[in-house]
Write a structure and sequence with these properties.
- By secondary structure, the protein is an alpha+beta fold.
- It has one domain.
- Helix content is 21%, strand content 37%.
- It is built from two helices and nine strands, in the order ββαββββββαβ.
- It has helices spanning 15-26, 97-110; strands spanning 2-5, 8-11, 30-36, 46-52, 56-61, 67-71, 79-82, 87-90, 118-121.
- The strands form two sheets. A seven-stranded antiparallel sheet has the order 2-1-3-4-5-6-9, covered by helices on one side. It has a two-stranded antiparallel sheet with strand order 7-8.
- It is globular.
């Protein structure tokens, strides 16, 4: 699995490698991370992870053209800022960093969406 964060690419050949890298990125105050099997542009399925100092959000892009976003099950209005204001994400899509880590590790095992996170289908 390849983890791409800005100008840095990490080849993760085991779940332990992936967990170490994702934990490092989750510790950052701001990050946009792409996770896929080969790290190729437009490769599906893949996941996108946004991180800020307190929380995370995940998007899953399936090989069938579908897109899902993480959900915390709340109906909270408002937005949360990621990547220095580049992205404003609905509050109900925000999850904990630990939940994001679990979902990414589950994705490593089967390329799917983790059952540890609730998902809303976007398209």
């Amino acid at each position: 699995m390849v983890v791409d964060c800005g100008h840095d690419k990490y080849q993760c050949d085991s779940a332990n490698d992936l967990e170490r890298v994702i934990r490092e990125l989750l510790a950052l105050d701001s990050a946009e991370v792409w996770i896929s099997q080969k790290g190729e542009q437009d490769e599906y399925p893949c996941m996108a992870l946004l991180v800020n100092e307190r929380c995370a959000v995940l998007n899953y892009f399936g090989d069938d053209g579908s897109c899902y976003s993480s959900s915390n099950g709340s109906h909270t209005d408002g937005f949360v800022s990621f990547c220095d204001g580049q992205y404003e994400i609905h509050s109900y899509q925000v999850i904990s960093k630990e939940a994001a880590l679990t979902a990414v590790l589950d994705h490593y095992r089967d390329n799917g969406r983790s059952s540890a996170v609730m998902w809303d289908q976007l398209y």
